[in-house]
Predict the structure.
Amino acid sequence: MSAVKKRVWPKVENIFEQQLTKSTVFLNKDIISAHYIPEKLPFREKQIGEVTQGLGAVANNAKPNNFFIYGKTGTGKTSTVKHVLEQLDDFVSKRNLPVSSCYVNSRSHPSKYKVLLKALRSFYPEKDFLGYSASFVYEKLLSFANENAAHLILVLDEIDKIKDVDELMYSLSRGNDELTSGSITIIGISNNLTFKEKLDPRTKSSLCEREMVFDPYNATELQKILQERCDKAFKEDSVTPGAISLAAALAAQESGDARTAVMLMQRAGEIADMDETMIVDDVKVEKAKASVEEEIILSMISTLPQQQQLVLYAISQLSLSTHGFTKVNGEVEKGVMFSGEIFEAYLQLAKKFDVRTITSRWFRQYINELEMYGLILVTSSGKGVKGQTRLIKLGFDAGKIKSALEKELMKAF
DNA sequence: CCTCCACAGGAAGCGCAGGAGT
DNA sequence: ACTCCTGCGCTTCCTGTGGAGG
């Protein structure tokens, strides 16, 4: 047996070593990442109090009400609930109360069976229930509550993604009736209010025993939030006040979304690290905005069905061509077009790419979805136009959308 | 006032893929 | 392995709507 020869690497500093010794504006980068949950949630004291009070029933060995929490993305729904749950876990373990909670992201568990399975796994961490039937999982969950006289709290984030919510809620409320001790409580979180209207009336009344709405943050609130986070995430004096107020203002005018505000600051910090200026100012935030926006656009576009991408491509193409739409008062608005016009352009494009075409009915469906995603803005025609149609405008820069789509469509053809 | 235009969007149904039940 | 069922993407058909134009 011959000794293994040691490989001799050229004497260049390891790139990770370089990375480590490189100077950075960050003190603790995790704090400014989108997934971080701060221990204090400014401007959500009222909501925290409400959830806490609702769940407080378990201290008296009673079943808490179900909750339905609604609000746009980045308004602190998930953070609030997770925060309260952490406190609750802490509280009940100190007092030895039979309370267990489980957080489920319904996007990765989008059916009744998967939700129940996920819950069961978290209550029996040592066992693996893979392959068991739906009814077994359900019974096992009930008996867990019954035998331990435990109050179970299930948080269903993005509850609108569950295909059979009605059945899930029905089973659970029936389960609650069967239990002689213990209970199961649901906290549903959604950013889609129309979801509530689609529910079976019985599901609706049981899920919405208590309802809460999270309003978007305004610019001042966002600024405070950012300030607090930046103080901990960045090194001292590496962030200018202007940078924070700009990031807050940009996020506020977009949607009041705290996540984008945080992402802006994170990206701005990365940019400052790259060019080694060691200072995060409003210029870096401005740059970050372009980069974050591009990323959002790209990630949204890449998940669209191909046909819908073509529709959007038709819109961006028309939007870039010189024509504008003349309003009643003689004003000319650029980049606005009729839906019929877009459909025609779409048909032409599909012909060029030699793909099948969708009908105008489904085309309108696609337009509605694009509006929901915020990729386009839609208004009714109103006066000055014959017939009833809609005026459509891109929500983002036409050039960016077009080039992103070209990349995406190139992959396909 | 009526009619036509240019759509909007609901309802029903169709073909298909992928699970669940047997 | 086989049916049966169900959700999904889409088409077909249809009724409704707001404004222009006669």
About this structure: The first strand of chain A starts at residue 67 and ends at 71. The CA atoms of residues 171 and 292 of chain A lie 43 Å apart.
